[in-house]
Specification:
- Pfam families: SBP_bac_3 (PF00497).
- Keywords: Signal.
- The protein is α/β, with parallel strands linked by helices.
- Helices cover 35% and strands 21% of the residues.
- Strands 1, 2, 3, 4, 5, 6, 7, 8, 9 and 10 form a ten-stranded mixed sheet that branches.
């Protein structure tokens, strides 16, 4: 009888193990070269990639990154050719085509200018940008009001580095680039010229970086929910802060508070189920940990 029970228990454990492995997935995730957040030559493919992999591993899954030009990555993921896309800004249009979870990280999006041409602009007043040629990247979602401002002179290119090169050559007046990506690209590609450009404060917008799961993917909603659970577990356990520290970023207490709803940062302030108002925090509160990248 004891032998029979032992055999039965062993069989059940084996079935459970096989079942868990049958559910484990290797997800094909479209991405781009976007240091310091993600890159094929960065340790662990960058901080965003390491966070994603650890969140997926909690469910036995893992990611296979495919590096592509951004517009192609976005289009092909939207069509369901990839399981997910990251790291990405979220917009009302994209929310029609993608599921998402809590953000991986935040970025500061804004303008670079030449130090020898300290243009008198105010990122919060788009009218101050009217006289200038502004470099933007094809397919990127920037700030909603800025993207809708047809009265601005926008010069479209294929990458952030193209924008910075044009700015260095004086072919444009401003370039819309993430603060830390801009300084990283300058340090890598033109270290002698790094001090010729500067980021204009305040940022145009503080933007969360998401993993987007296409709605055309079978069980896409379940994948987004599983990823959300994994990310929240990393945060509650302190592992998220540890990953940030291991990336040599400042892991102070002022990292962003995770919204109750993944779209909360993109929508007007609302009340949660307990009646508390959800409002965005200030730039200083959200991003103090990123200052060490400068």
């Amino acid at each position: 009888m004891r032998i029979s029970l032992l055999v039965l228990r062993t069989a059940c454990l084996c079935l459970a193990f096989l079942g868990a492995n049958a559910q484990a997935q290797t997800l094909r995730v479209a991405t781009l070269e976007w240091a310091p957040y993600v890159g094929s030559d960065l340790p662990g493919n960058g901080l965003a990639s390491r966070i994603l992999n650890e969140a997926l591993a909690l469910n036995g899954d893992k990611a296979e990154l495919v590096f592509l030009p951004w517009q192609r990555a976005l289009n092909e993921t939207r069509e369901g050719r990839f399981d997910a896309l990251m790291p990405a800004y979220l917009s009302p249009d994209r929310s029609q085509d993608f599921y998402t979870s809590m953000p991986l990280l935040d970025s500061q999006l804004g303008f670079f200018r030449r130090r020898d041409r300290a243009l008198p602009i105010n990122p919060r007043d788009l009218d101050t940008l009217r006289p200038y040629r502004i470099g933007v990247v094809r397919g990127y979602v920037n700030q909603e009001r800025f993207d809708a401002a047809d009265f601005l002179n926008k010069d479209v290119v294929s990458s952030d580095w193209q924008n910075l090169e044009k700015l260095l050559r004086g072919r444009i007046d401003l370039a819309v680039v993430d603060r830390y990506t801009g300084y990283q690209l300058l340090s890598q590609n033109a270290p002698a010229l790094r001090e010729q450009l500067e980021f204009v404060d305040p940022p145009l917008e503080v933007k969360p970086l998401y993993v987007l799961v296409p709605k055309k993917r079978a069980e896409g909603e379940a994948l987004a929910a599983s990823l959300d659970r994994g990310l929240r577990t990393l945060r509650r356990s302190g592992r998220l802060q540890q990953l940030i520290a291991e990336a040599h970023l400042e892991s102070a207490m002022n990292t962003r508070e995770v919204a109750a709803h993944p779209l909360a940062e993109q929508l007007p302030a609302t009340s949660d189920q307990h009646g508390a108002t959800l409002t965005p925090r200030t730039t200083t509160d959200l991003l103090s940990w990123q200052a060490s990248l400068l």
